[in-house]
């Protein structure tokens, strides 16, 4: 509730981005749609999460430190950020629908892709922003440190999305297993590692 | 001497890799056959140019066009123009024991001391009608299948690769070495988080430094190889190039992160944590994603990266495995030296700062 403007700001960000895409490319096919959607998605996710540790004032941080353990804090932050990213993805899909249309054939697979995508991006970016918060310029470092770690997730997401355009029923079980295993391994590591960041 | 045995081993193995890798010649091979196509039932003279051969009248040369494993056409006449150029004439029967009307057949050259060597799809032969039974009944007796055995162990001749096959001993061990160095770095990062000893952090960073150097060298050697074989220095069409570039980017970010945190204990802890997360991402980048993508240009790819079969034969193995071990040991040696210079820098910084 402390950041009512955050969601609205992110939505305006999406709208203006999509409007620029619409203005420059009036009609286009599936391939650029896939690329543009995930670029927009990546940037709103980074923008929304980059500040998730920085906005806390020192008092809040101390208060949190006293009442909660590291694991509780990171789980709470990750849950919040995953839901935030999922909301933002839904909003940006809405904006895409308004301006550009959505050339998806397999809606179920695409919905799953979006959910897995927000899960992966939310989890990784939360942790990376915790690391980046230790530097002076946390927003920049979230992007620099986050992109290489996110790339395996993003490539799988783009592949899944591309499968949603195809006429024949896609076989996506392999990609979903990969995505889930990346997410699972990272969540396990983060739960072990975050308390060490939280300590000081 | 006892403590540093692995450094001596690295030097010996790398010397062996450089000397044996460069000195051992390639097998003879067929570079070019012209003309490329003919009709069945005709007599045709081909000009054949070969590589790494020195034919003379005593070579006992025979040439064949291979139809399948049991049937082959033997040459009718053969003139040696130079040590590496021949004129071979074949009398191709009207009917061939092959189901396809038009297809490419291999040409096999067989010499006493060189053994048999071939060029796949060297000649395209067109038949008027397909009649396998008739072709087998009328097939002339010849020596096809009774090939000489070569008397030397040499590196395989592969078209497109040619002499650049030796890059196998430099390009591939770089990536092996990088992976082992990153594993070492991961172990030191974990040990730092458990025991909080500053030395472990420095070791971890030194290992990443050398690993990144190996990665850059791997890209450079691969780029040179790609220029000769694929015709380009770099292509994003090839998934392995993309993922290795991103993995390097990740470790560049690691150094940037280190430089952005001033407090030493804090820097060590945060960078160790990023190292662990980064290693997981690197494993996915280098070993999982390339297996997911079809149509890679790297050998053995498109489902299963790695090598085996024709790409890595036993003569290559005798140099390749020592090269992998040698380059990896050299990497750890370099990391140790980096660590020591780092320690000296710290000492002087504290003393004179």
Main structural class of chain A: mainly alpha
Q: What are the secondary-structure elements of chain A, in order, as H or E? A: HHHHHHH
Task: Give the fraction of residues assigned to helices of chain A.
Answer: over 70%
Q: Over the alpha carbons, how many angstroms does the gyration radius of chain A reach? A: 18 Å
Q: What is the alpha-carbon Rg of chain B in Å?
A: 28 Å
In oligomeric terms, what are we looking at?
Answer: heterodimer
**What's the SSE pattern of chain B?**
HEEEEEEEEHHHHHH
Helical stretch tally of chain A: 7
Main β sheet profile of chain B: 8 strands, mixed
Average pLDDT figure of chain A: 83
Task: Please state how the strands of the largest beta sheet of chain B are arranged side by side.
Answer: 1-3-6-5-4-7-8-2
Unreliable spans of chain A: none
How would you sum up the global shape of chain B? elongated
- Total beta-strand segments of chain B: 8
Largest sheet of chain A: none
| Share of residues in helices of chain B | 40-55%
> Strand fraction band of chain B?
15-25%
Strand content of chain A: under 5%
Uncertain ranges of chain B: 302-306
Short description:
The complex is a heterodimer of chains A (200) and B (353). Chain A has 200 residues and is mainly α.
Structural features, described:
The complex is a heterodimer of chains A (200) and B (353). The model of chain A has no long low-confidence stretch (mean pLDDT 83). The two termini of chain A are 27 Å apart. With 200 residues, chain A is mainly alpha-helical. In chain A, 81% of the residues lie in helices and 0% in strands. Chain A has one domain. About 1% of the residues of chain B have low confidence. The longest helix of chain B is centred in the last third of the chain and has 39 residues. The radius of gyration of chain B is 28 Å and the shape is elongated. Chain B has 2 domains: 109 residues, Immunoglobulin-like (Sandwich); 191 residues, no CATH class. The relative contact order of chain B is 0.12. Chain B is an alpha+beta fold. Chain B has 7 helices and 8 strands; from the N terminus they run αββββββββαααααα. Chain B has an 8-stranded mixed sheet, with no helix packed on it. Classes of the chains: A mainly alpha (200), B alpha+beta (353). At the A-B interface, helix 5, helix 6 and helix 7 of A face helix 5 and helix 6 of B.
């Amino acid at each position: 509730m402390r950041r009512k403007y955050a969601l609205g700001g992110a939505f305006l960000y999406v709208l203006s981005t999509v409007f620029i895409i619409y203005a420059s490319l009036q009609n286009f096919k599936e391939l650029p749609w896939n690329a543009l959607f995930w670029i927009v998605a990546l940037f709103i996710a980074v923008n929304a999460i980059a500040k998730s540790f920085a906005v806390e004032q020192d008092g809040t941080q101390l208060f949190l430190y006293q009442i909660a353990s590291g694991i509780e804090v990171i789980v709470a932050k990750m849950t919040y950020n995953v839901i935030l990213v999922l909301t933002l993805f839904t909003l940006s899909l809405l904006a895409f629908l308004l301006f550009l249309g959505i050339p998806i054939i397999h809606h179920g697979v695409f919905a799953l892709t979006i959910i897995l995508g927000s899960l992966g991006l939310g989890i990784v970016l939360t942790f990376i922003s915790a690391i980046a918060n230790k530097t002076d310029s946390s927003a920049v470092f979230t992007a620099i440190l986050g992109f290489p770690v996110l790339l395996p997730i993003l490539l799988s997401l783009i592949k899944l999305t591309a499968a949603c355009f195809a006429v024949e029923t896609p076989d996506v079980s392999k990609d979903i297993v990969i995505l889930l295993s990346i997410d699972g391994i990272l969540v396990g590591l983060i739960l072990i590692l975050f308390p060490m960041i939280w300590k000081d | 001497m006892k403590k540093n045995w692995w450094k001596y081993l690295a030097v010996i193995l790398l010397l062996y890799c450089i000397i044996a890798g460069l000195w051992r010649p390639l097998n003879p091979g067929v570079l070019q056959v012209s003309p490329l196509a003919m009709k069945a039932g005709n007599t045709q003279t081909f000009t054949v140019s070969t590589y790494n051969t020195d034919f003379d009248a005593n070579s006992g040369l025979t040439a064949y066009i291979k139809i399948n494993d049991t049937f082959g056409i033997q040459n009718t006449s053969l003139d040696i123009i130079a040590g590496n150029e021949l004129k071979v004439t074949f009398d191709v029967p009207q009917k061939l024991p092959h189901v396809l009307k038009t297809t490419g057949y291999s040409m096999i050259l067989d010499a006493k001391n060189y053994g048999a060597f071939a060029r796949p799809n060297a000649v395209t032969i067109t038949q008027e009608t397909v009649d396998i039974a008739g072709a087998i009944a009328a097939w002339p007796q010849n020596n096809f299948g009774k090939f000489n055995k070569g008397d030397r162990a040499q590196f395989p001749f592969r078209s497109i690769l040619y002499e650049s096959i030796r890059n196998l001993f430099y390009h591939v061990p770089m990536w092996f070495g990088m992976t082992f160095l990153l594993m070492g770095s991961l172990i030191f990062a974990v040990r730092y988080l458990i025991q909080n000893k500053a030395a472990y952090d420095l070791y971890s960073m030194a290992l990443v430094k050398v690993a990144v150097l190996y990665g850059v060298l791997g890209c450079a050697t691969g780029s040179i190889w790609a220029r000769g074989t694929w015709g380009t220095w770099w292509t994003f069409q090839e998934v392995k190039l993309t993922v290795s570039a991103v993995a390097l980017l990740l470790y560049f970010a690691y150094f940037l992160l280190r430089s952005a945190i001033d407090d030493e204990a804090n820097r060590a802890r945060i960078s160790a944590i990023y190292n662990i997360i980064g290693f997981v991402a690197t494993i996915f980048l280098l070993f999982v994603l390339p297996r997911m993508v079809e149509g890679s240009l790297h050998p053995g790819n498109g489902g299963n990266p790695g090598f085996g079969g024709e790409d890595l034969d036993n003569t290559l193995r005798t140099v390749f495995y020592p090269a992998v071990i040698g380059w990896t040991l050299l990497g750890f040696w370099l990391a140790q030296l980096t660590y020591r210079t780092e320690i000296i820098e710290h000492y002087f910084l504290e003393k004179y700062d």
